[in-house]
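Quiz preparation item.
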């Protein structure tokens, strides 16, 4: 298993769409360049923020190929490979081409609502099906079930290629429990921009960010300052984004991120159903905050 450094700010890439809802590969290529050139430490491709459930298999392959080609191994690429059918994920891991991919991110199975033992066995099958590093992803607000600290730590201890967890439970006691009791080769990554700073002060190694789509330079600087122990400087940047943290998610993700990128001139403000763009009132508030942050829009 190859080592991967997930310290710092990863960005969960959006998928730009044209007005006719086809994938805007040109806009995606420009967004990848923008990330690489502005301090993003690694990219997360085909995660929740990418509207992956609405993409065809052919579109997914083209997106992966574009990102791998654009990045040219300059920063790591983490690929979302998750679902609620364990057998399907195992088959994908065994049969798909993962050239240029440095790790996989796999979400706790959603909708089925498995027990803790079911979650453990699910990830056991995934870990045994690949030599790639595996990042667990706990986001009970989306999946309907929380992976406990006990289950996370059990997986971390039992499988060498289970290297980290993206924790988006919002439960600081649980996240602190994992950080306190984890093995040395396992890391905790914030799954929420708004708690990245306080979680780093507890011992997390960074964040997989949505806001980084638009602000890679600024937000990666906040993360690096916090990791270096310069909490006062990091806190100042963190607080400058406080209003955006809530605005980005008030109408759902990635609607907020897409409206922000649209205001900045990167993409069309287009999502695929069942997701829809932010309300006009939210969009105007986002534009106002961008102006206050001296972002041209």
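Solution:
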């Amino acid at each position: 298993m190859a080592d991967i450094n997930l310290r710092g700010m990863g960005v969960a890439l959006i998928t730009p769409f044209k007005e006719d809802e086809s994938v805007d590969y040109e806009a995606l290529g420009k967004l990848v360049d923008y990330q690489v050139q502005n301090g993003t430490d690694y990219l997360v491709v085909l995660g929740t923020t990418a509207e992956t459930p609405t993409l065809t298999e052919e579109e997914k392959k083209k997106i992966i190929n574009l990102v791998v080609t654009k990045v040219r191994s300059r920063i790591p690429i983490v690929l979302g490979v998750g679902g609620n059918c364990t057998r399907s994920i195992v088959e994908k891991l065994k049969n798909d081409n993962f050239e240029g991919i440095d790790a996989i991110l796999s979400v706790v199975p959603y909708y089925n609502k498995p027990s803790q033992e079911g979650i453990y066995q699910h990830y056991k099958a995934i870990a045994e099906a690949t030599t790639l590093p595996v990042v667990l992803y706990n986001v009970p607000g989306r999946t309907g079930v929380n992976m406990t600290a006990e289950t996370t730590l059990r997986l971390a201890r039992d499988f060498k290629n289970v290297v980290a967890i993206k924790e988006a439970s919002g439960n600081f006691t649980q996240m602190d429990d994992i950080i306190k009791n984890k093995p040395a080769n396992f890391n905790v990554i914030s799954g929420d921009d708004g708690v990245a700073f306080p979680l780093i002060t507890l011992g997390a190694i960074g964040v997989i960010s949505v806001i980084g789509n638009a602000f890679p330079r600024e937000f990666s600087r906040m993360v690096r300052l916090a990791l270096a122990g310069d909490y006062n400087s990091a806190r100042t940047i963190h607080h400058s984004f406080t209003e955006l943290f809530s605005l980005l998610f008030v109408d759902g993700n990635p609607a907020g991120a897409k409206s922000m990128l649209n205001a900045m001139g990167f993409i069309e403000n287009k999502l695929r159903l069942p997701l829809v763009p932010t309300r006009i009132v939210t969009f105007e508030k986002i534009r106002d905050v961008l102006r206050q942050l001296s972002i041209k829009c």
